[in-house]
Amino acid sequence: MIRATILAICSLSVSGMAGAVSPDTSLRPKIRPAAAVTAPLEVMTATSRSLRPQLRPEGLSVDAPEKITPARVSNPAYDRWVRGFRSRAAANGISGAIYDRAFQGIGYNPEVVNKDRNQAEFKRQIWDYLDSAASPERVQMGQRALRRHNRALNRIEQYYGVEKEVVTAVWGLESKYGTRMGDIPVIEALSTLAFDGRRGPFFEKQLIAALKILQNGDVTPRNFLGSWAGAMGHTQFIPTSYEAYAVDFTGDGKRDIWSKDPTDALASTAAYLKRFGWRRGMPWGVEVRVPRGVSTGGSRMPSDWAQRGVVGVDGRPVRNYGSARILQPAGPSGASFMVFANFDVIKRYNNADAYAIGVGHLADRIGGGPPIQASWPRGYEPVSFDERKEIQRRLKRKGYPLEKIDGIIGPNTQRSIMGFQQSIGVKPDGYPSRTLLNQLRQR
Q: How many structural domains compose the chain?
C-alpha cells in the first residue's frame, strides 16, 4: 500500500469498519473470451485517483500472502489470449523480445484465480486486526529494523518529511519487514487475472505497466515476484503505482523495490505519502476519552473537542495539531481516536480505517508508545500473544493445517479454530478466547 502502490485489490473486510469493503465485492468473475481483446485499455476511474484499487490484495490482512505453489495448468484459451495480447503490448511500446522473454515459463495459474474469487470469506473484527498489526513480535521486529536501517531512514525522513517510524510501520504491515513479499511471478499473476476477466481492464493495465518495468531494466524476470494479485516488493506496490511513485533513492540507476536493501522501497513509500499531503510533526491520531452522550460528528480543533470533554487518555487536552474528527471503530464501547489529516493520507495507501489505525498505532509502538488503553467489546475473554501461539500449536498437534506458529489469528487459524469447535459440538465462532484455550488444553 508507493505500493502506494499500493496495493491491489481486495475485498476482505473488517466488520464495522468504514471503507473496508471493496466496491467490487458484489461482482463475480466473468470468463474472458478466448479471442484476443482489442478494446483500448480502460482509464482508471475517479475512485482510483491514487492509481490503485480501493483495497489492496489481501485486503486488511496483516499477514503476507499465503505461499502459492506455481500450479500452472494447460489452458489453450489462456495461451491464445497471451498471443493476442502481444499486439496490445506492442501498441503500448513493449518490444516483442521483452514480451516473449517476460512470458517464458509463464502459464495459467488457477490458484491465483481461486484467491481472487474467495477474498471476502474471511472477516476480522477491529481488535483482532490490531492485535496482529501491532503484535509484540511485529513491534520488536520493527524496532530492530529501525535500528538496522536507521541511517537510510533518517535520510529518507529528512528528504521527504515523513517520520521514519511511519515508513517502517507501512513496511511492517505490507511484508513484515521484507520477510513476506510474495513469490509468484508478477507476469503470471497479472496475465492470469487479466485473462480471467473479473477485473480484466484493471489487470490489463497492470500487466502493461509490469512489462514496462521489465523493459526499463529495473528488475529481471527471474526476480520479478510478488503477491497473487501483482503487488510487489517490500512495501507492495502495484505496477501502475510503481511507475508513478517509485524512486531511485540509492542512485544506482534502478528503482529496486525487491532488493535485499529496502532503501528504494522505503523511500518510495515516503515519496507516495508526501505526494498525498503528509505533514511532518502531525500525528495520525491520538487515543482519547469521550464522555458519554457527547456528539462525535464533524471536525473540530482539539481545543474545541476539549471544551466538550474529549481529552487524551492522560486526561489532558490534545495539542492543536489541526482539525480532527473522532473515530470509534467499534462504537462508543471500544477505543476512540482523534484523527488528523495524516490519517487520511495513510488511507490513500489502503483505503480502510482499520489499515490506517494499524499503520499509525504500529508506528507509535515502534517509537516506544504504549498499547491502546481502552478495552474492546470482544464478547469473550481474550488471551495474550503467547497464548495465541499456544492455541496454534495445540491446533497443529491435532492435525489442523497451520504452517506458522506466529500468534496471528489469520484466516487459516480462524478456520482451524472453527473446525475444532465444530468437532467438540460448540458454536464455531473462530474467536481466540480463553474458553477455547481451556478446551484445547482439556482435549
A: 3
